[in-house]
Design a protein that fits this description.
The chain is an alpha/beta fold. The chain contains 8 helices and 8 strands. One of its GO terms (biological process) is proteolysis.
Length: about 300
């Protein structure tokens, strides 16, 4: 019985090791395994089959946008649209039902500056991918940057609109020049290079991630004015000077009986003088007594 149990345990162990390596790509170049595996685990990249990633294969514009948007976790959570955005609103060659349409929409509203007439099936160049990647990375935060200029031997081959972002890409150490000091901006990017660049960008963003600022609570108090009207006060509490403010942007009356009061906060400006007098930062509005007042921070409205 003991021998059977031992044999079973050994069999399971060997099976788990085999299973763990069954889906490892066997065509990766030296130094690519960590990046590709990490992106694969996050669902950002996949191989052409279970054993091959094809790192020397080319990557299309559509695949690039999808990889960058997913890799840097770009989204539109803080945007509110008057109507649902479509790819055709911003691009002439992106079908609204294409598998990559949502990625292009997200990229557009995150400022990746993709040409309106972009061909999604075109092979992307190193400078095009690098520009998008840096813009996506910089949407994640404000990063420290050493004020220095990196000499690129083939700088004259870089389009002027990409020179700034590619300099920052090198300073962020998302990639490096080749041994001759060239960036090779017009060369077609490979799948392996793209995975490495995106992985480095994710690592950089994670290393410099800032803890989110605590959300300031805004108190909502309701005072009956009449049977039909209530006075609603939004307050930030007592503040050390008059530089702290709160303003109501709009009120949305929902069918569930809630009056959602959208507000924005303002804080003292460093170049302004304020009297050091304790002041309650508050604002007032009036609503029908039929509604329950709730407050929420204002969102950016996109048309």
């Amino acid at each position: 019985m003991k021998k059977i149990a031992t044999l079973t345990l050994t069999t399971l162990l060997l099976s788990s090791l085999t299973f763990g390596t069954a889906f490892a790509f066997n065509d990766l170049d030296e130094g690519q395994t960590e990046a590709v595996t990490a992106l694969q685990d996050r669902g950002i990249v996949s191989g052409i089959d279970s054993e091959h990633f094809a790192p020397k294969g080319k990557i299309s514009y559509a695949q690039s946008v999808q990889m960058i948007v997913k890799g840097l976790d770009l989204n539109m959570d803080l945007l509110r649209f008057v109507k649902k955005p479509l790819a055709s609103d911003s691009f002439t060659n992106i079908p609204n039902d294409a598998w990559y349409a949502d990625a292009f929409i997200t990229a557009h509203y995150n400022g990746l500056e993709i040409p309106k007439d972009v061909n999604p099936n075109a092979i992307i160049t190193r400078e095009q991918f690098g520009d998008m990647l840096v813009r996506a990375l910089e949407k994640k935060g404000n990063y420290p940057l050493v004020k220095m200029f990196i000499q690129i031997k083939d700088e004259d081959q870089i389009k002027p609109e990409y020179q700034g972002t590619l300099q920052r890409m090198l300073l962020y150490k998302l990639t490096a020049l080749d041994k001759e000091g060239n960036f090779n901006p017009r060369s077609e990017l490979t799948r392996g290079e793209a995975a490495g660049w995106v992985y480095n960008a994710i690592q950089f963003a994670d290393a410099h991630a800032e803890k989110p600022a605590p959300t300031e609570e805004v108190a909502v108090t309701v005072e009956k004015i009449s049977d039909d009207v209530n006075k609603v006060t939004l307050s930030r509490g007592e503040k050390p000077n008059s530089g702290y403010g709160i303003a109501i942007n709009n009120i949305r009356f929902d069918q569930d009986g809630q009056a959602v009061i959208s507000y924005t906060l303002s804080n003292p400006q460093p170049d302004m003088m304020y009297a050091d007098v304790i002041n309650e930062a508050k604002t007032v509005t009036y609503i029908s007594s039929k509604y329950k007042a709730v407050a929420e921070p204002a969102m950016t409205i996109m048309k």
